Amino acid sequence: MSVVGLDFGNQNAVIAAAGRGGVDVILNGGSNRLNAAMIGFNDSRSMGENASITASSNYRNTIKCMKRLIGLDFNEPRAQAEMKLVPFTCVPIKHANGAVSIGVQVNFNHETVEIPIEAVAGMLVRHMGELVASKSAESSTAEQKDLFPSDWVIAIPGYYTDSQRKALLAGCQIAGIEGVQRLMHEHTATALAYGIFKDIRKEFTNKETATNVMFLDLGASSYSCSIVSYAPGKLTVKSAQFDENLGGRDFDMKITEWIAAKFEEKFKGKLSGKVMDRPKTVLKILTAAEKAKKTLSPSGVKEARLSLEMVMDDLDFNITLTAPEYEAMCSPLLARLSAPIERALAEAGMTSKDMDSIEIVGGGSRVGCVKRTLAGILDLDATTNNHGLSTTMNADEAVSRGAALQSAILSPRFKVLPYEIVEAQPYPVRISWEGEDPAPAEGEEAVNSVIMFDRNSNFNIVRRVSLRRPGEIVVNASYDEKADSFGFPSGASKDIVQFKIKAPEGNTNKIRVNVKQDINGSILLSSAQMMEEIIEEEPAESKKEEEVEAKEGEEVKKEEEKVEKKKKTKKTFLEFTQTRPLDWTKAELDAAFEKEVAMANIDRVFKETADMRNELESYIYDMRDKIISENQLKAFATDEERSAFSDSLEKTENWLYEDGFDAVKKVYAEKVAALKVLGSPIEMRQRESKTRPNAVAVLQRTVEKFQSWLNTSTGEEQYSHITEEEFKKCHDSCDASSSWMYDMMDKQGSVAANQDPVVTTAEINAKTNELTKAISPIMHKPKPKPKPEEKKEPEEKAAEGAEPMETDEAAKKPAEETEPMETESTA
Questions:
Q1: pTM for the complete prediction?
Q2: CA distances from 8 to 220, 360, 567, 705 (A)
Q3: Which chain regions cross the lipid bilayer (predicted)?
Q4: pLDDT digits 0-9 by tens, 738-763
């Protein structure tokens, strides 16, 4: 099972797997590292690169931009703005708590269905996992389903709110993905990928001060600037600023709008409508615009020529875009690059001169005018390579590699040196509570809210607040008003979660509320405890010990036994519930999971049916040519067989392209079986004619080998242990096999090529094995070992005048020990 990191992009998704040799980005079936972040719906689902193939023709049922839509309220301004940019139909999905999230309406398997956008996101994540499993299966004997990734880290934008984080996790749960260890900010993943290998090379060790690096990430739909400080074995995110509505797609759209305007200007009066009102036309122009952007990105390129066929109303269009024109139309976008940089430097208390390196990543960072603008903002030397910006990281893969490294660090399957990551919370979170406040305890201030998780605070962390409340306590977590100054989405709800704690009625004890911001950056209630002070009474028995230890003659004052009072705190865990604005109930998750399983089953049946249809089609094409070829099957079929087989192939082919194209798998399988009834005997004859001579040659060599041994082994000393009966058995076996072989070959020689063979290759091979098993054990029978001779004990002569036993004992004992009793008695 793999340990992976996923860069869940808006346009492309990239997945990397951690292994003993490092981190590898997984290639898809087309050997590409970038996978289109799309899910296509038709008779079955197509995902990733396969979905991109039909994205233009099937645009109403090809879902993309899941990253921008997930976790948003349907009526939220940014959701409405994003839905205007997509060509498919978005619908509201109502939840049990009254919340309304975003869903998509598609035609799937000849039905109109509504699918939550979270479920679509989960489909893409699962597809990426299947790519890893497929790659692992190439070098493993295990089944592909058993090689699905077990440990995940998924990279998300740092500006994601709590509801968006929870929604992505819900999507993974719907898709049946287990083992998501954490959601990780994209800028933190990039920083980890940059720092961990430099740390291994000791690049941060010999420095007196921390190493400061700025990361500029211009992706497909968003832009971020983060400043990270490095020390040995540690990285600290100092600041992260975003423009969530600035990305490479905005540069593409500028070119698209320019082309549309020029097209309408040229064919004014000939068009049936507005270009930008035709989704299919816009998609076609967008593809050309992206190519033009890539053409103009390298330095020195002055123009890009665009040639579009059948743009609209059967009209073709050719135009040239110059670099100055492109940069001029993108100037409003380029102007927005400075604000996140300025805010990040101000928050970190640094200047661009304090940066040891400025790394650019993301596909949009390759655009030439973007590099020049960034260099100007940071006052870099524009005459150097890349205008003074560092490009040591792969712009498309940095995030996925960092996520894979984090996955390996967290996974119990890997032993990785510890590396500390100090995260930065994007928005301040305020905890507030309801109800009348009784008089606060001495030294406590009467408040009913507090910022518990401030901007740039680290997480995973638990913090607590103590309350005095009788009955039910309602605690709310929400983003503080200050979040607006840190780029909180305009019009988005600031509510995060509400906790209801069941405290006893009439309670006057402290209620300790432990609120946690988990490793995913989500807010949850870790526990709620009632802190009750109780007094335990204990007899003062220590006086008895003093009396025992008192000095003799000292008078001990008699005191009555006093009772000492000791205070203890009793913790009682309280029950609580929590609700979120866009919450998924267990019933809703289970229902969505069942729909996912049903769709997966439809996909499986569709694929198996398509595979069987392809098998039938391939068999028809293959046999149709072979049956009439002199060098193939023609010689091995009678005229009647050849005619019947050809007719059957033709009829089946006509059926396949007329009534049978939409048949079920079972029908295709029956058609294949029916054709093989006619074709298999002919193929068998051809196969036998090719393999039989070699099988006969092997049998003949085997017989000759054993006969040669029999002729030379008789009378040889090394084979004297083999009995006459065994030799006779070997002779008989060789003679029988030889006779059988010549008899079969004589019979086979009179059989025509278009008739079934008298003897098959399998029968000849079986005869060879039979002969070998009969003779080989005798031939290699080991010679018995000679019996060992019995050793005779040498006779020892007794000394003259001495008893044998006395002599024996005297010989065994040293001279000084011959009279032990006398020595002992003398002593």
A1: 0.84
A2: 11, 19, 55, 67
A3: none
A4: 999 999 999 999 999 999 999 999 99
